[in-house]
Amino acid sequence: MVPPPHFSTARFSTYRANPDHPSQARALGRLEEIAGQVAGATRRGPLSFLRRKPTVPAVYLDGGFGVGKTHLLTSLAHAVTAELGDGAVVYGTFVEYTNLVGALGFLPTVEALAERRLVCIDEFELDDAGDTTLMSRLLRELADRGVALAATSNTLPDALGEGRFAAEDFLREIQALAARFEVLRVDGDDYRHRDTVTDAEPLPDAEAVAGADGREGATVDAFDDLVAHLATVHPSRYGALLDGISLVALTGVRPVTRQDEALRLVVLVDRLYDRDVPVLLGGSGEHGLFTPEMLAGGYRKKYYRALSRLGALAETGRRLLN
């Protein structure tokens, strides 16, 4: 549970704050301060009850898709690691933490994470009441033990500019922890230019196959076969499916109409993006991949994030063909 390869070189110094959106520079500066605070904090000893309890940083990055929240979060993780060494920070997505609890049990997870100085949670999700309650309890236990916390989540594109980001929902759901979290708003446009990228015409199946032919580490699969196979593998193992894979070519890509299939695809896209694996999409490509009902439903944030990331990976794949 470390920052994904896509952000292995992300640092505060490489974040390019957009001058048109001053909140980006403010968030950057504040996180640099928090990194110093976490790295300079001293763990309380056995007689800590005799001293005033120190303030433990807890920060929430709130903004739309592609404004650099994950870049900032991973930069925070790298900065603290550089000061305190490997093992001081644990990093994962919301789903990875719920998977960890499922694998170890709640109390063993708390004990393992409490040894860290900073816990980073990317893509905090609010669409599953049970998982949200579980994570709220986990964060409370860690904060009580002096662990610094940092989290991100997404605002829907149609909520941008309204002055109401996801922070309101986040703070309501974490209840007892809300007062401890500092909200940093990160405004801006999607640097992956989702609307432009996903308007690109899909590749003919034959071109997608030819693009993978002879390329080391490339795979070619029919979309329906992939969808069927994902149902046989636990989502926590999707990353392992991509070990050694340099390019994914899919033929016969079509809209998915079942929610369970769509959610599995979201997890796969996240793992592809984490590992910078470009894709070649035949069939209808990303056009209409998720139905209008899905994009208006309770999991819409997941689907919009997946479209943004898939579009960027597809554009990378197209450049490989030139």
Automatic annotation (TrEMBL):
InterPro entries: ATPase_AFG1-like, P-loop_NTPase. Keywords: ATP-binding, Cell cycle, Cell division, Nucleotide-binding. Residues 1-20 are annotated as: Disordered. One of its GO terms (biological process) is cell division. SUPFAM superfamilies: P-loop containing nucleoside triphosphate hydrolases. NCBIfam families: ZapE. This is Cell division protein ZapE. It comes from Myceligenerans indicum.
